[in-house]
Amino acid sequence: MNLADRLASAQRDRGQPTPPSGNGHGGDGGQPQRSSALSDPLALLKQTVHQALLANLGPKLYDSDLSSSDLEQMVRVALQQEVGRTQTPLSNVDRTRLTQEIADDILGYGPIEPFLRDPELTEIMVNGPFDIWIEKSGRLKKVDGQFASEAHLRRTIDKIVARVGRRVDEASPMVDARLPDGSRVNAIIPPLALDGSLLTIRKFAADPFTSEDLITFGTLTRRTVEFLAACVQGRLNILVSGGTGAGKTTTLNVLSSFIPSDERIITIEDAAELQMHQDHVLRLESRPANIEGKGEVAIRDLVKNSLRMRPDRIVVGEIRDAAALDMLQAMNTGHDGSISTLHANTPRDALARLETMVMMAGMDLPVRAIREQVASAVDLVVQQTRLRDGTRRITYITEVARMEGDIVTMQDIFVFDYSAGFDENGRSLGTLRSTGLRPTFVDKLAQHNIQVDPMLFAMDGRV
Fold first, then answer.
1. pTM for the predicted model, two decimal places
2. What's the rounded mean pLDDT across residues 67-94?
3. CA-CA 20 to 30 A from 361: which of 69, 137, 145, 292?
């Protein structure tokens, strides 16, 4: 008799129902439920031990006087005792696995907890309770883990969003949140998600990447890092542009690390992700409306409020709406050195999208007036792209020069060279190269006592 048969027999002896067949339907919200017992012979025992453990510990799990380490120790001791009481013979491997999975459910986030612990993963995508994908080294891969049911997945989502004061339910079926380490979380549940709740987690390293890391990854070159550091220290206004998953936030974090530690920095985000180590950092986070539709605090409100907080720098995680107008006004009224990100495919598209978002403010401004504001406020656009090989590269570093007629003129300072092709593994061999053009803002940097080596812009074929 195999382990699954022994567990089913033990359940019948205790008068408990055996698991449904793999073709059955039922469970939460009418979603098809796969039989965990067929794919996982420990599923029934895991459920029994889990329920016994919850009944034994009860309110102790929510005791605010317990530290996280004390809670973990208490749960693991109680778990070992419950597993020891079972009548089912278990190998050491099965016993360890059972203990770890139940501990992950109670103390962490269930079947995705092992992936959250893996420092090499950058994304975890849960497409319903039985379908989990990960991104590793820029490649997508399906993994074996799964939730027990839609209800199990919903409990995990609720646990994540509740810790940052957010909620998700049928009235508000989409939510952005974050994990304690700053990793970004997005969840969307039925009725908007037709095949079960969807959970996407963008992981961030516990130790944030540095400029040296980006050089190692090939995202930037040493020459461009030196140039960008001078731009940040010289208080230029910088936009980091790119598509979803291109690595904009990581680059924003690296750029922010160049800000001198004696400046007062205010960060404004939908879900706090930036990891800054300067001495004087104030972190603001927007807030969605409550269940009554009231109490919303938008990015735009926080940008306006930040101007009254005597900032030296304003760092906005992402501009995506009418807050663009307030950000431009801040850049144009003495708050130089501001940095932000937005979604766009090219530097030119970034300015066009910024123009569109300003129009969303409903101020009925002439297009030329908006473009003049953009040309006056933004000094540099850093374009980031996720290449087909999964690597994330800076593809343009472009100066926003001035207005000529009704057009904002731009000039590329560094451009990614695609002509090098790919190696035998399909990895791009291209790199950033100087165009030989000297940016006009070099004189502005000199006014802040920032000297830029002219050789940074030399076209020598190597960077």
1. 0.75
2. 68
3. 292
